Amino acid sequence: MELRQLQALVAIADHGSFSAAATSLHTVQSNISTHVARLERELGVQLVDRHGGGLTDEGIAVVERARRVAAEIDACVADVASMRSELTGVVRLGMIGTTARWLAPLLLERTAIDHPGVRLVIGDGTSSTLEPQLVSGGIDAAIVNLPQSSPDLTERALFEEDLLLVVAADHPLARRGEIDLTDLDGLPLLLPAPGSTFRAEIDEATRAQGVTLVPQAELDGVRLIASLTLRGYGPAVLPASGASDVLEGYARVSVRGLPRRRVGVVVRRRGRASAPARAVLAILDEVVVANLDARHGLHAPTPR
Fold it and tell me: Would you give the distance in Å from CA 82 to the centre of its chain?
C-alpha cells in the first residue's frame, strides 16, 4: 500500500470524480484510476462505485483511515522541523461560529507574532459538523460546545458564557432587563436543533422548572439563529458571544435559571498533536484567559 494510492482515494472522496481528483492532485485521470485499482486489488474489495461515482462502504472506511495517516505524516514532518528550532507547518482548527467571531482574529494575530512559520487555517461550523472532521483527521483540533460525546476525542474546557434572551426592543420582556426562566414558558423562540449540545442544556434547565418552550423554528447553528433573530424572525436564547453585536432596536435580557454554555477544545484521543498544533493550542489558552470578561458574559470554566 502506497501513500499516493491513499491520496488518490481521498481526492475522489473530496472532489466527487476521478477527473476532479486528478485535477486536484495535478496529475492525469489514468494515474488516479491506476492507483485506486492497485489499492482495490491489494485489499480485495471495491472502493469506488464506478456507476454511481461515490465510494463504497469499504471505500469510506479506508478514506477515514487515510486521512489519519496523512495527518500523522504531516505531524511527523512538523515535529522533525521543530527539533531544528524551525517551528513550521499547517495547523487546521475548527471553531463554532459564535466563538470564531471574537477568538479567531486574536489567535491569528498572536500566532503570526510568536510563530511566523506556522500557517493557521481556521474553519467554522457547528459542534455536530466539526467533531466528525476531527475524528477523521480533517482538522487538528476543534473548539465546540461541551460536553462532546465521541469516545475518540478528549476535551478541555476553555470558558463558560452566559445565556441571554435577545428580543426586539418593543417586546414586553425587553424592558425588564432580567427575567426568570419561567417567563419563557409558552414564548415562541428560535431554538437550536434537537440533539445538539446547546439544545440539550436548554431543555434540561426548562424541564427542571416545568417550563415548556415553543419552537418557532429549530436551527442547527447558533450564528444562524443570531442572524435570523436580528433580522426580525423571532426572539432567541443566545450565548453571550452570539449576542455581542446586538443592533439598535433589539435588547439583551438576562435569564435567571439558565446554565452557562461551556465551550472547550477537543483533540483526538489517539496519536500526538504535531509541534505546531501544540504551540497553537498553548497560545489558544493564553488568548482566552486574557480576554475573558464577566461584564460581557465570558467566564473562566468552573471545575467539574
Answer: 27
